[in-house]
Design goal:
alpha/beta, TIM Barrel, Jelly Rolls, 12 helices, about 25% strand, globular, binds beta-L-fucopyranose
Length: about 525
């Protein structure tokens, strides 16, 4: 940071006061809501500015900061060796010999997951808790003579081991005789009420868009409003994911997010019918490859929001299974994703402005297989080693516009609540990072102060080598987090250039790391 004369200081304080007033007025405007309406005829610049100030709700902030979450798919499919289900499934088949929910939670936690979502009811309709509203549950299985409760055991293990807990309840229900009628909505809400009242704090409710009824099948008109109202009443801190207003399915099950990932998208992205249309509609052996309709390369850039009627904060979640399928199949024991692949997925989900949702598939014993544990442990080791030491810590920083209230040091202070910004009206910025000596690194981590919105549209990372600046890499969006992956690079000086931003950028983190 440079030194200032008294006159300069007065001037800066005046600008600062002005700046804070403006920032506060934005904050008040969008603290109320994570959306903004666009009236017809709004000039394009105004639309872009509005987009820059759409902010996440507190529950979306909490969820985003989890970064890494987990799923457990276990149920009758595990015993029938299938992925979806059949009408003629029998509860009698459910009989794990050594179920240990503590092991599931331990494994997920060891992998790095901060939340675990149990599939309480998959499409087959079988309930992993003793629901009062159907006989098709583990009440009528031989496991623990019908007195067991998988949801309860998992909830308790999560609490004991200190991670958050969520539930997946499949809207599509192959088994329910009332599916396709209004009565089903009541049945579904009764089940939701059981799950949201008997198992402590629920942090995520996951509704799947999949439906395999086919053209001649039953068609359910879901009471989404009724479901959401009930969830807000009983679990006010829970995000509602996929078929819901808080969290958007990235649109693929490969584990790889978008290079350009905007958390602010046209409000139409949350239309339930469209999400369902893009979701899986028939059983597959491995992962579901969606139509391009849903997995578009970009859904929030300038062109995509130009004609939007409204803009919403609707962040992306990347769900992926450790194995080809979601449920356990012995034949897939050798096909568990490798540590290297999992690290790649981590970089391409958490590192691309998304939350990772990694699935575990306990086997017929009710245990996660050794191979799966080994591979996630391998992944964890690599990630821990990589992100242990920020090589840019204590670097000296030089910015093109000095802002004493939000100074550059904030980007390396390891505090996500502080940030550097060049100040109002500035949509480009440069920051030079000089390390104490030449260092070798191959990852760069960037974060925007996403609490105030997502703004950066284009950036470049340069390195100073052989007496001149050279472009190393770059990208479009940053958002909550961007992890840049490149080959080993040795230098003492790097430079981040923000080439375009929807309004003044607010950068909270800059890190350089060396992956083994
Ligand atoms: C899909 C489902 O059909 C899969 O079985 C799995 O539950 C996955 C998470 O969502 O749409």
């Amino acid at each position: 940071m440079g030194k200032f004369s008294r006159k300069n200081k007065q001037c800066i304080f005046f600008l600062l006061a002005l700046y804070i007033t403006v920032i506060n007025s934005y904050s008040q405007e969008s603290n109320e809501s994570n959306m903004v309406m666009i009236t017809p005829g709004t000039p394009f610049d105004t639309i872009i500015k509005k987009a820059a100030h759409v902010k996440p709700t507190p529950r979306q902030v909490t969820w985003q900061e989890l970064e890494f979450t987990s799923f457990v798919h276990f149920g009758l499919n595990t015993f029938y060796d299938r992925e979806w289900g059949e009408k003629n499934y029998e509860a009698l088949r459910f009989n794990p010999s050594a179920l240990n929910a503590g092991q599931w939670v331990r494994t997920a936690k060891m992998a790095g997951a901060k939340l675990l979502i149990i599939v309480a009811k998959h499409h087959d309709g079988f309930c992993l808790w003793p629901s009062k509203h159907t006989s098709f549950s583990l009440k009528n299985s031989p496991w623990k003579n019908g007195a067991g409760d998988v949801v309860g055991e998992v909830a308790e293990a999560c609490r004991k081991q200190g991670i958050k807990f969520g539930v997946y309840l499949s809207p599509w229900d192959i088994h329910s005789p009332v599916y396709g009628t209004e009565e089903y909505n009541q049945y579904f809400k009764n089940q939701l009420r059981e799950l949201l009242t008997n198992y402590g704090e629920i942090s995520e409710v996951w509704f799947d868009g999949a439906c395999g009824e086919g053209p001649n099948g039953r068609k359910q008109v879901y009471d989404w409003d009724g479901y959401f109202t009930l969830i807000r009443e009983l679990a006010p801190n829970a995000v509602i994911a996929v078929m819901g207003p808080d969290v958007r399915w990235v649109g693929t099950e490969t584990g790889y997010g978008r290079e350009t990932e905007w958390s602010v998208v046209p409000a139409s992205a949350a239309m339930m019918d469209d999400i369902a249309y893009g979701s899986q509609q028939s059983e597959t052996d491995g992962i579901f490859i969606p139509s391009d309709d849903l997995y578009k390369p970009d859904i929030g850039s300038r062109d995509k929001i130009r004609d939007a009627k409204g803009l919403i904060w609707y962040p992306s979640e990347v769900d992926v299974s450790l194995r080809p399928g979601w449920f356990y199949h012995k034949k897939e024991d050798s096909l568990v994703k490798s540590p290297k692949k999992l690290v790649d997925i981590y970089n391409a989900s958490v590192g691309l402005n998304s939350v990772l949702l990694l699935n575990f598939s306990p086997d017929k014993r009710g245990l996660i297989n050794r191979n799966d544990i080994q591979n996630v442990r391998g992944m964890r080791k690599i990630l821990d080693k990589t992100f242990k030491n920020n090589l840019a810590k204590n670097a000296s920083l030089r910015v093109d516009v000095v802002n004493i209230a939000y100074n550059a040091e904030h980007i390396t202070d390891n505090d996500p609540l502080t940030y550097w910004t060049p100040g109002i009206e500035k949509t480009t910025a440069t920051i030079e990072i000089s390390l104490s000596k030449s260092k070798t690194f191959n990852r760069c981590v960037l974060q925007e102060n996403f609490r105030n919105g997502q703004r950066v549209e284009s950036f470049v990372l340069d390195v100073f080598q052989n007496g001149k600046w050279e472009k190393l890499t770059g990208g479009t969006t940053i958002g909550y987090k961007r992890i840049l992956v490149f080959d080993d690079t040795n230098t003492q000086k790097v430079r981040l250039r923000i080439l375009s931003s929807r309004d003044y950028p607010e950068i909270s983190t800059f890190g350089l790391y060396k992956a083994p």
